Amino acid sequence: MRNVKNRRSFLAGACALAVSCIATRHVLAADLPGKGIVVQPIGLSTPTARFQDVIVEMGLQQLGYTVKEYIPADPAIFHLAISQGEATFSAQEWTPLYDDYYQKSGGDATFERLGHTVTNCVFGYCIDKATADKYKITNIGQLRDPKIAALFNSNGVDGKADLVAGNPGWGAAKVIRRHLDLYDLTATVRPAFGNYEALMADVIARFNSGKPVLYYTWLPMWVSGVLVPDKDVVWLSVPSPDPANGKNNSRLSDGRDTGFPIYEMKILVDKKFAAQNPAARKFFELVTIPAGDISAENLLMQKGENKITDIQRHAQNWIASHQLQFADWIRQSTAAGQA
């Protein structure tokens, strides 16, 4: 008889606990700082740029925000869209690379650049190590020599070096054009602008067939997992510091000057939204993703896992493997929203 009473007492307690947990979940859902607030992410159209955005979007969803479908755009467009209230944020604010877009679209009066999402991002020019070693090429200025430039000619017509330079709408495109003028390379080097993924597929095919290659790239990026710096390829120095870099560091640890600052990726956000949403602001300030993790994810995409569902799975796996850190970001952000 006593056992029956005990079982009844246990069941009653279990039911009460279950009801309590359900009620708690409802309360917690109702208390989420982003509940009822819609955000619009925007950023680069390059598929390999999506990984960090998806991680940020998932964090915002955990804070209760409704996240609309991502808008792909060139940097000039996504800066303008955020400044005009047509989008909320981008997790791809390369600094100082995008300073011109930032200032022309309103600067500090319109935006905030938050956090340190990805740090120590190297940009520059690479050639295959075999050609670098054979001809002792360490500096892109050596391509002023027509004989050296001709090594990297791929059309077989004019003898100019073909430099894969990426999408013409990128901020780096302006830097590359400036470098060709600044370092007196326009007579011997031809930049190839277009779809970067397609251009790099040709570079990799040339490399695999033993031909010299010359291309612009950056870290984090899947390319570095296929053509590994200092193993398969080498970074080239520029002949002299680019005055446009000002006080920004453009040197690798061994002293080589790539001509590009060592960039950092921040989150660009509508200033009004940041002021009115302390939870989202705090999350933007906290989230950090190692550059190597992005390169590794990009390599998975290059190997065929490149649909948005794949990228979302990669992001979920990343969050799961950093669960304690991610949960702490959510906890701190929720507290900021409730303060």
UniProtKB/TrEMBL annotation:
Keyword terms: Signal
GO CC terms of this entry: ATP-binding cassette (ABC) transporter complex
Signal peptide: 1-29
Residue ranges constituting the ABC-type glycine betaine transport system substrate-binding domain according to the UniProt record: 55-320
Keyword Signal in annotation: yes
Gene Ontology molecular functions: transmembrane transporter activity
Domain of life: Bacteria
The keyword Transcription regulation appears for this protein: no
Name the record gives this protein: Glycine betaine transporter periplasmic subunit
Source species of the chain: Caballeronia udeis
Organismal lineage: Bacteria, Pseudomonadati, Pseudomonadota, Betaproteobacteria, Burkholderiales
